[in-house]
Amino acid sequence: MIASASVRARSDALAGAAEAVKRRGVWVALAASIAFGVVWVPAFATLDNATAVARLAAALGIVAVGQTFVILTAGIDLSVGMLMGLVVVLANGIMDGNPALIPAVVALGIVVGLGVGAANGLLIVATRVQPVIVTLGMLSILQGAIFVYTDRTVGAAPPEFRELAYGSLGPIPNAFLLMAAVAVVGALVLAWTPFGRYIYALGGDESNARRAGIPVARIKVGAYVVSGLAAGIAGILLAARLGSGFPLAGQGFELNAVVAVVLGGTALSGGRGGVAGTIAAVFLLAIIGNLLNLLGISPFVQQLVNGLVIVLAVALSTAGRRRA
Amino acid sequence: MPARGHDGPEPVVLELRGIRKAFGVVQALGGVDLALRGGEVHALVGENGAGKSTLIQIMSGVYRPDAGEIAIGGIPARFSGPLDAETAGISVVYQELSLIPELDVAQNVYLHREPRRLGGSILDRGALYRRCGELLGEVGVDIDPRARVRDLSVAQRQLVEIAKALSRDADFVVLDEPTASLTSVEQQLLFTVIRRLRAGGKAILYVSHRLEEIFEIADTVTVLKDGVLIQTMPIGDTDRRELIRLMVGRELADNLFPSRRPEHPAHAGPPLLSVEAVASTAGIDAISFGVWPGEIVGLAGLVGSGRTSVLRAVFGLDPDATGAVSVRDRTVGKSPTDAVRAGVGFVTEDRKLEGLALDLTNLTNLSATTLPGRFGFYADGQARRLATEVASQVELDAGALTRPARMLSGGNQQKVVVGKWLAVKPQVLLCDEPTRGIDVGAKAEIYRILRSLADGGVAIVFASSELPEVLGLADRILVMREGRIVVELDATTATEESVMQAAAIEGDAQEGL
Domains of chain B: which residue ranges? Predict the structure, then answer.
């Protein structure tokens, strides 16, 4: 072992360096985009703009934390966008300006989220169908449910409810605080609870996790429940931000959530990654969008840039893996 | 010979009585009795298909026996699943590792049995790493509990596996082919740990293909053949040759390796394969050698010395490789396609991962290298003819051609991998661990196939971690250390000692011998 140690150490050092760059890639990109904004875009480095970005990023951040749990198990949850949309129309449709109903719709959003998440998880475990297919089906079911409920914008959020999105504690927006709380709880659960460690274990090697006696099915269902819960909370926040029940409110969140997770360094193959990178990626995406806005670039070009970022990020992460 | 520091046999602590198990019409075990004693290493040997794996699976609670019973301390035990066996104190260290690469050592060792706080809802990470550190210390293993498993060497992972087994307070430890991918030095490390377990009173069942190490570590040996127990005896009452005879039912010991041609292949004329100054970031440097027609060259060295990297570079699989490779006068480009075109074949180390499409038929696997065609269309009849011809060359039953590769034994799978390269009629054949994990009988056949290829003028280069194989099969041995060829030895005069001496630096060599 000693004889081969130096050769191994050399290749280890190389692999380690590549790994470090890959892991910190999202942080480097985040720092670079902030630096770019500070130097080149005058309106960027203001308190107003910073709170606006934080407020805008919050809903995606919350739903992406849930998505991180699922992707760590080597699964995927494509139903979260429509789930958020359903919560938005239900919450604002039911309240219709009545502040007395706020606790009820918040509870409803959470229950719907938990329920849809459990349904996803149970279907995946029971049928052994690929998570992509099951949650894509769920996406369609939820979209149908939204349109059965309403085909146009409905209801209104009372001003007290809108405080959730637009109020702030000192200079810090409430929305950001909510996201930070969700992210911290998510990170703690992953690092400090058996449930969290088993998510890594089964994402790393499902059959070995099963052999160790881990209740794989239960943990998997749990991950989708977490994702559903996060989407429910994000839906409530989105309802407060939009102020009315727009049926397509959640569209695209599923894709952006997956992108944030992958950009943040969590492997689609499971077992590796975490919440911190996801949050960094959410802010990277938000800041890129914000910068393009401030520079007066059309939203269509923004979508194009977003797509390029996604393809580039995936290409870079797989290239790194192949070399390692 | 292991030192026995006590008088008389230890008491029997675990007993298998009349264990029978059939799968469909196949009788895997036909009434096997086995008695394990505390403080004893009991070796279980037998060819592939002899029933060793089935026996282990029954002990570990994966299978239930059709008849017979397991008695622990004289009391019959009934296992309805692996957890029952574990609770009863039986721990199995499987050949195919059960670790999760993304988790660290401590998390793997205590997976699903983590120390917890606050009524079990929170992990006690402090206790986890402390306890794991203590355990590794007790076993005598110097590994950081926080190291991620995927950064560990195979040997280190094996030791973590054993630590995991011990963390369950196992009284009975079953080791399934524990040294299959270890070098001699690493193997000694493992043996030290096993001896410590024995001294601690554990009963150890040691399953292995490698007879040399059985004589080194075991106290008792049991031979299984075709699901029947042939004999159990103290290791001192037998020898290697007798064990082989009992395992295969014929005298094989003397002709495990085919005889070399009386005349050493003359190095007249230019070499068939010539490798010059090949280097790569994969950890090899200044690799130059030639192989003449009819010659078998063995690459020896410790794990990490670069044996496999050399073969990969020669075959064009290493994009970072520099230097020149040529077959006769044709320069081989840096792609496997070009290597095949130049007449080079490569039998890879891991037949399940790289060598075979397990779910495809053997026929398809055998013709994968050539894909005979006419006018750009796949010619089935031609493929069939070719596969049949190659199958007879490697002595593979023609009836097996239409079955998926997965259904063959390891030895027969390996024949398919070799056969698929014979189909292209190679001038040069590279083999990485040509007989890993296959039984003695199949090994002998692979050796014979390779020797007859060489006699037909093919130049063969093989890498192996088994010294007897290097010494017995090769004409010439190139010993590697830290990515370089350090010495060339004539196989007829080389000894295990001389190869080890060259492969390891001084301090290591002492430990390895």
Answer: 12-89+171-182+202-251, 98-169, 273-343+426-512
